[in-house]
Automatic annotation (TrEMBL), chain A:
<feature type="region of interest" description="Disordered">
    <location>
        <begin position="309"/>
        <end position="333"/>
    </location>
</feature>
<feature type="repeat" description="ARM">
    <location>
        <begin position="641"/>
        <end position="683"/>
    </location>
</feature>
<dbReference type="GO" id="GO:0061371">
    <property type="term" value="P:determination of heart left/right asymmetry"/>
</dbReference>
<dbReference type="InterPro" id="IPR011989">
    <property type="entry name" value="ARM-like"/>
</dbReference>
<dbReference type="InterPro" id="IPR016024">
    <property type="entry name" value="ARM-type_fold"/>
</dbReference>
<dbReference type="Pfam" id="PF00514">
    <property type="entry name" value="Arm"/>
</dbReference>
<dbReference type="InterPro" id="IPR000225">
    <property type="entry name" value="Armadillo"/>
</dbReference>
<protein>
    <submittedName>
        <fullName>Outer dynein arm docking complex subunit 2</fullName>
    </submittedName>
</protein>
<feature type="repeat" description="ARM">
    <location>
        <begin position="848"/>
        <end position="881"/>
    </location>
</feature>
TrEMBL record, chain B:
<dbReference type="Pfam" id="PF13499">
    <property type="entry name" value="EF-hand_7"/>
</dbReference>
<feature type="domain" description="EF-hand">
    <location>
        <begin position="71"/>
        <end position="106"/>
    </location>
</feature>
<feature type="domain" description="EF-hand">
    <location>
        <begin position="152"/>
        <end position="187"/>
    </location>
</feature>
<keyword id="KW-0677">Repeat</keyword>
<dbReference type="GO" id="GO:0005509">
    <property type="term" value="F:calcium ion binding"/>
</dbReference>
<dbReference type="InterPro" id="IPR018247">
    <property type="entry name" value="EF_Hand_1_Ca_BS"/>
</dbReference>
<keyword id="KW-0479">Metal-binding</keyword>
<dbReference type="InterPro" id="IPR002048">
    <property type="entry name" value="EF_hand_dom"/>
</dbReference>
<feature type="domain" description="EF-hand">
    <location>
        <begin position="107"/>
        <end position="142"/>
    </location>
</feature>
Amino acid sequence: MGISLTRAAQWTMVSSSTAKLASTPMNESLLKEILHFVERFSSQHPQEAEHVFEEPLQWNTTLVASDFKTDYDISDSDVQSHERDSEGHPLLQLSPPTVYVRSFSQLSKLLHLADDKKLVEVRACLEGKFESNLHPKQSNHQHSSITHRLNVFVLLVTLYNHPIIQVRLNPKAVKNEVEILQVFCGGGDKGLLKSLRYTSDFEFSNGYRAPLWRQVQGDICYLVIEPCDTETLYITCSTAGSFLNGGEENGYERTSDTYEDLVTLLKSRSPHFAEKINQVEVLIVCLIKKAEVALVYFRKTSAGALPGELFSESSTESEEEEEQPYRHPETNTDLPSEYWQIQKLVRYLKDGDQIVTVDTLCAMMDFNLMQESCQMAIQDTGGLKVLLNLLDTDEHKCKIGSLKILRTISHNSQIRRVIVDMRGVQSIVKILDSPVKELKALAAETIANVAKFRRARRNVRLYGGINKLVSLLDCLPNLASLTPSQEEDIEVACCGALALWSCSRSTKNKKAIRKAGGIPLLGRLLKSPLQKMLIPVVGTLQECASEESYRTDIQTLGMIKDLVRNLSSDNDELQMHCASAIFKCAEDKQTRDLVRKYKGLQPLVSLLHKAGNKQLLAAATGAIWKCSISQENVTKFQEYKALEILVNLLTDQPEEVLVNVVGALGEFAQIPANKAAIREFGGIKPLVKLLTSPNQALLVNVTKAVGACATNKDNMVIIDQLDGIRLVWSLLKNPSADVQSSAAWALCACIENAEDAGETARSLIGGFQLIVKLLSSTNNEVLASICAAICKIAKDEENLAILTDFGVVPSLAKLTNTTHDRLRHHLADAIAQCCMWGSNRASFGEAGAVAPLVRNLKSKEGSVQRSTAMALYQLSRNPNNCITMHEKEVVQPLIHMMGSDDEELQEAAAGCVRSIRLLYMANRNAELFTFRN
Amino acid sequence: MSKISAMNKRATQALAENISKQVEHFSKKEVECLIREFNVLMAEQNNSGRAVQGLDRGKFISTLHSIFGLTDDRMTGRVFRTFDKDNDSVVSMKEWIEGLSVFLRGTLDEKIKYCFSVYDLNGDNAISREEMLHMLKGRLIRQPNEEDPDEGIKDLVEIILKKMDYDHDGKLSFEDFEKAVKDEHLLLEAFGTCLPDFRVIFFHDSIHSTSARLETCSEY
């Protein structure tokens, strides 16, 4: 909503010249919003709805007299409302085609009458102009400030839809308010006020007029106002609201309640003002001013929760800190002495001038700010607000001091949240532009701490922080000798990288960093010899490597070499981030080759010895897993005896390590020699044991590894002894499709290689039912794997009989319409195998499996052609199927296949053609026989 | 006329060469500019016929105000005393240039020395409680419920003393001050603004270097 209105405001400026609304979806939704608002207005704000406009809203309506009901005087085509203003003018008047409306309640009634033409009316109303022909004498210059009616509506919608009670006033809003009121000053009794002026003509660059040391308190400016009917008022406008002050003698003291804005304050003090302001046109002007505040507030709240954005952030945030409700300050009983000392210092911060402020900040730094009691004391005593206010002042020493405290206390998650709530991120982001390097570095460091949760990260992005942070990275990291200024640049770049690291946990920020040109800069910093620089840089890269585009850039910009180099660093954290970056990037074959080329495989294996550091171990094993997808890498790994170490890591490790270790073993076991090696190192038993893990990612890898090992007969014996087939089989019940298919593939290998596997399979109660049931899965990968498994199981005739009983034939037949090649291949195999029992051939024909199979022959995939030809050969032994095949013109493609180099395919195709031919001959003989008789 | 100005120019150059050897951080060209600027200030000063060898207190303070934005009366007086090393109540050309060298280009050590001598009101090589109180007085708004208007400041002085007085003798020696500032640079101007804002320095610096460069150009 906030964003839509902001856009609307831009759009109205364009369209105000033409006074026509383009018919865009944006405008449509805006119109609906306004319509909705106006319809509810009279019930939600009855008092305001009765205000009479001084000038009517006027437009050409589509309504005619007959549309109006009671409450209206109808004479011919003209209509007047019963409701009249104090001078007797009707609040609604229709003289076709023009309608004049003079209050919100009438407007909402009219829209009610318009029924399905509501939107047309709203649009016409907005396009209409402020006409003053009804009361020419009352029209005056005040309206020049309202250029287009739409603006007013948009602002009204904003205003009333969203409470602005908790708004912090800002200098701009106050300035607007003062400027508007100044327009109505003077002119004797007709004006709102006699005079209104600031006490100081000097305006700071931040819009404040109060002296610096009062700005810290939130004071914006001081006003002297002469109302028409009471004595002169001395007023302080502060971020908390407006209040009377002690006048010339005691200008800073508050002597009245605080009002949310100037108008409210004046209303309470000057009856004359209150009376005058209750005219709608003035009200609208004031509303515009209020809405300004509201819009500012709005941007703030809309940054908090836009449904579209809420769920689109990156998945790495799952371990994200939760937003918890605020801890309320405890009662004053057992507060530590630091609390009172800090409270005192906060008071000095508020009351002191620049020198005292800096001294106090230094004194505050002496407290142990990492301690929660101190952090909470600063927050509870209002110190946080003062610290944030200091960031908006012009005093760079105060800013430095404040940031030094903020960067430390922002380690506390609650403080972080309050900083974001108080709009601190904007102020900190703004400081990134400072010419003082120390300030930039401190601001970036503070962002690094604050941006630990999503809302903060989004704020950093929305206020342009990502671009600024990326530009901090621009320095020369690896010069032999540095000037002091270059050293400072490096320090700044370090802090910038730290901040980006925190920010990069949001997907959109990753994109923003890329867009801001951050990747080449990170690549350059990667050449730095400094660990404190490398850790955040590699941390950011590995965080971002979850994005495809980053992985490509990391590879093409030559960063793999540097990542590999730092694998041999002496810092565990750096090694971990490098390994984890390689883990993410090595999905790509070229990257895997580069890791080998730069001799990164050996350091990865040596990281396995650091078994104490589980995070490092997880990253290293992950990198090994992904690298071992390339067989050349596996060969290298064997030189470094990686397999034995990996097998030893199968026990007593956390799951994130196990997933990677088992994944790596699965890849290693693709080489036959390694299958035996795994057994020799005692790896089979722990692997089979892991089949009972509840972790799905782990199960996918374990079943794959077990499946790979099972193709070795000796391994299979052990697996069988350990009841592995039953364990794998029961994983078909797992809810995850990945686990199901991976388990089914493993099952294929097990059944193929086990001694009397048929017997084992039959002993599993409910196993066959499960298999047949999975044929109704919607996941093609699962279906393909199950078909493959059926093919293996059905090799045993008894099993096939049981499967047939459970209805495997119609279930398979139903799948024949698929276009998924992998599934087509295994499905055809399964059908061919299932033809071996009883009347299954005929059943397939009856279930309509033959025609689609003929079509599948035309697939370009060789494996599909081959399996399908074999299935057709089996099916062709049933005469009815032959007829169907012949009808579907199977002969021509089969004859093509007979010319294939693949003997089995040749044979199947030829066999099939033969069956058809035999049937034809038999038919002809039969016909001849009948003919003869 | 042109002869005189040529002689003047030569004299200035000789003087500049001499001074630039004794004062750190400025090149000969820059010193020349500063000399010229000093002469302008001298000319502006109402010397009422007397032959004065430097800027008097009033002119000096108004210059601090107009060029360097230093407005704190308590401090500007002390800055004058610190610039005026020979205590003759005027800031001579050399003193002026020496002072500016710290102002504009001073290293941290030089600035620490300078600030310490500004803050050491009675020149006894220590900043006492009373001196601090004097310098910080009135910098806190008086709370209406407090009886002693300076209670807050007194408390603050104790806090600062506790923080900076490493040898626990109840006053800040130069060593105390130096150590504290090196620890936390923000404490350099702990008792009042006596150095120009960095923006002024940027500005000033760029003017000097540009005008120096222009000089060089015009000579060829």
